[in-house]
Prior knowledge:
32% of the residues lie in helices and 11% in strands.
Amino acid sequence: xxxxxxxxxxxxxxxxxxxxxxxxxxxxxxxxxxxxxxxxxxxxxxxxxxxxxxxxxxxxxxxxxxxxxxxxxxxxxxxxxxxxxxxxxxxxxxxxxxxxxxxxxxxxxxxxxxxxxxxxxxxxxxxxxxxxxxxxxxxxxxxxxxxxxxxxxxxxxxxxxxxxxxxxxxxxxxxxxxxxxxxxxxxxxxxxxxxxxxxxxxxxxxxxxxxxxxxxxxxxxxxxxxxxxxxxxxxxxxxxxxxxxxxxxxxxxxxxxxxxxxxxxxxxxxxxxxxxxxxxxxxxxxxxxxxxxxxxxxxxxxxxxxxxxxxxxxxxxxxxxxxxxxxxxxxxxxxxxxxxxxxxxxxxxxxx
Length: 352
């Protein structure tokens, strides 16, 4: 006899109504997920409680990462959900990520197994290389922090990490693997070498930063784009804020469309993301917000004219600049993103 689903909240969204994307394996992934990065502002317990409420509210995609320092608490929330019959493991799509300080030989598997233990599950549906280099920073650091051991991206080093990720698939620890914070030049350097190709690419995507070239490249190569900061990440750490940043929810085009639909501008950003073809992973610990973030994907779509208005409103404003990952000798954060079409520091090791 099937376990009866319990504790489904009245305002919940039917997961069956949420659009899906199909990965190259044929596996489906929900078109909206809940993010879990909020450790600079919220406690692990608060984020875990949000995951618990979000799943009860209809979410089936949870975007996790070891560096967020809350997987153990999220694991407790998942155990509660499984034990009370609110959801089964098979109904969830859980993403994990290997952090930059775990790129060494044998360390990727160790990191993955730790995440599995903390989350209390036997496998992950998707496992990402969080950043394409081993540069890392201390939790809660400011934007001026630099690790003297940081270095540029090198395809050979990256592929050593990717080979370890491929082994995770072979071991049955993960179903799919993917990449995050990549650029077209970096992808072109590594994709031909992949034995198991990436199922998804996680990247910054929001109305003020649409990355149309990278977005098209990802889709054309059969990978699913997952967009972080879908509403401009108003709660992002201070280290990622600069005076020239554009606030998506204050963009005139977004405000105008929000008024027409009588919703908060953040909802317009999420509707745009879903209809544009990426998977947004908005974060919130407030039930009213995270429930509406999911509900908006199945109600009152934007018109073609509104979608075009947003497309033309792109400000090319990257919010997560990553300057804390810069290596000695790099000039500024733009060196991380290959804006001139070349990989900085790749041709000759240690130089830019």
